[in-house]
Amino acid sequence: MTQRQSARASRTSGRTSGRASAGGSKTSARGGVGGDPKDKKAKPPKRSRGGGTELAIGLGVLTLLIVVCVVLYVQRNQEKRDFEAETKANNRAKEENIDNAMAAFRQAEAAGMAFVTSKNEKATEDELFAPFRSSSNVYNVVYNRQYKDKKRAVQTDQHALHKERLTSVGIGATLAMKEGVAINLGKAEGNSLDIVIARKAYLPDKDDKSNNGGEILVIVNAVK
User: Fold this and answer.
1) Confidence of residue 37 (pLDDT cuts 50, 70, 90)
2) What burial letters (b/e) apply to 164-175, b meaning 16+ CB within 10 Å?
3) In this structure, are residues 196 and 120 in contact, taking their beta carbons and an 8 Å threshold?
4) 144, 215 contact by CB (below 8 A)
């Protein structure tokens, strides 16, 4: 081989080696900078395992609230029904007490109005109390007649079905006013007995200078 040929071969070998080295450097650079294109794909986020627990807690709280609301609704409805039932029972008892007191009072008025207005001053107790002798519902009946004696002093002529019960009565709340009759609740026997009191006052005639009128008082056992 001549020297000229040897120099050409050396130059050709150098260029081939340089290109190979440059190509390898570029390939290495691309691999170092970009890496595998498959690695560039974003990975999907992992699902949190706590989501199911939070949902269960939320459902539990909601269920508890619903149960509380239902309990309160039932309780209030029951209280309302109890109140309405008690109110109806009280109204029935009130009406029954008024009716019983008025029925007994009408009997007393029929028997004793002439006495308390001094139109029959000589009425006997048999006449005054005949309607009540066998009644277990009537606690007492009292007739009061007021008149003036010869000295013009006011006197009271009183007849009672049960004289021993005159001081054991206390008058309470008013139930009604019917036909001029005041009807009240009351207590007797040391506040141990519920009673209903019906009473009416009678004025004397305008021209009657000797009598001051009178009063009829009827007491019956109360219905609860």
Assistant:
1) low
2) ebeebbeeeeeb
3) no
4) yes
Amino acid at position 135, single letter = S
β-pair type (169-178, 181-188):
antiparallel
Determine the topology of domain 89-221 in CATH: Beta-Lactamase (3.30.450)
What's the CA gap between 44 and 175, in Å, rounded?
A: 83
Q: What is the pTM of this model?
A: 0.66
If we measure between CA atoms, which residue out of 63, 17, 3, 214 comes closest to residue 128?
A: 214
pLDDT confidence of residue 87: 84
Between CA 88 and CA 96, with CA 93 as vertex, the angle to 5 degrees is 125
| Helix, strand, coil % over all residues of the chain, rounded to 5 | 50, 25, 25
Q: Amino acid letter at 158? A: Q
Q: Give 90's pLDDT tier (boundaries 50, 70, 90).
A: confident
What letter does residue 164 receive in the DSSP assignment? Answer: G
Model pLDDT, residue 33:
46
In order of 59, 76, 77, 81, the CA distances from 69 in angstroms are 15, 11, 12, 18
Burial, 98: exposed, middle or buried (Cβ in 10 Å; 0-12, 13-18, 19+)? middle
pLDDT exceeds 60 at position 6: no
